[in-house]
């Protein structure tokens, strides 16, 4: 997909979404839960023992709801970025992984750190999907008129930087 097509595609994804005011990733999740009639649950997570290349967030979809895991040992701003990126995957409807259904088939399994870590490690999207998620996140952020995060710090924008958007 050419950059222009990518822009057009992501724009079509984000265009009709009503953004909460004041804007935050958490408020957006609540808003999307209502707009999509499908709950989004946020789960702070510590990616203990996971390499530095591992994703800081993960999205797990079950038949009932979407679950977004985000690294909590980072600034609030970075947490918001991680959540927005995962929302990007949700909104783009990126491929789900069968492993998640297996991992989530038991009761209370979301509290199971091993299962969550396994899910995080197995999160594997294509480069194109990562670009789409990141651009959707960037567009949502760009459309927001106010921001209640802690403010960006150099080095915290690495997801976007790696993908060439920042
Ligand atoms: Zn991603």
Topology:
Blueprint: H1 3-14, H2 25-36, E1 40-45, E2 57-61, E3 66-71, H3 76-92, H4 98-103, H5 113-122, H6 127-143, H7 158-162
Parallel strand pairs: 1-3
Antiparallel strand pairs: 2-3
Residues 85, 89, 125, 130, 133 line the site of zinc ion.
Descriptors for this entry?
3-stranded mixed beta sheet, Zincin-like, mainly alpha, binds zinc ion, 7 helices, globular
Compact overview of the structure:
The chain is 48% helix and 10% strand. By secondary structure, it is mainly α. The protein binds zinc ion.
Write up this protein.
- The chain has 166 residues and is mainly alpha-helical.
- The protein has one domain: 2-Layer Sandwich (Zincin-like), CATH 3.30.2010.
- The chain has helices spanning 3-14, 25-36, 76-92, 98-103, 113-122, 127-143, 158-162; strands spanning 40-45, 57-61, 66-71.
- Strands 1-3-2 form a 3-stranded mixed sheet, with helices on both faces.
- Helix 3 crosses helix 6 (127-143).
- The radius of gyration is 15 Å and the shape is globular.
- The two termini are 19 Å apart.
């Amino acid at each position: 997909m050419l950059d222009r097509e990518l822009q057009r595609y992501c724009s079509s994804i984000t265009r009709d979404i009503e953004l909460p005011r004041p804007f935050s990733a958490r408020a957006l999740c609540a808003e999307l839960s209502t707009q999509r009639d499908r709950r989004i649950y946020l789960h702070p997570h510590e990616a203990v023992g996971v390499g530095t290349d591992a994703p800081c967030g993960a999205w797990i979809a079950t038949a009932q709801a979407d679950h977004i895991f985000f690294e909590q040992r980072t600034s609030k701003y970075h947490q918001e970025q991680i959540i927005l990126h995962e929302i990007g995957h949700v909104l783009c409807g990126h491929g789900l992984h069968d492993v998640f259904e297996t991992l989530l088939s038991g009761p209370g399994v979301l509290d199971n750190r091993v299962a969550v870590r396994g899910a995080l490690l197995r999160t594997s999207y294509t480069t194109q999907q990562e670009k789409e998620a990141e651009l959707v996140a960037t567009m949502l952020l760009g459309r927001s008129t106010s921001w209640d995060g802690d403010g960006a710090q150099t080095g915290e924008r690495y997801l976007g930087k790696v993908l060439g958007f920042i």
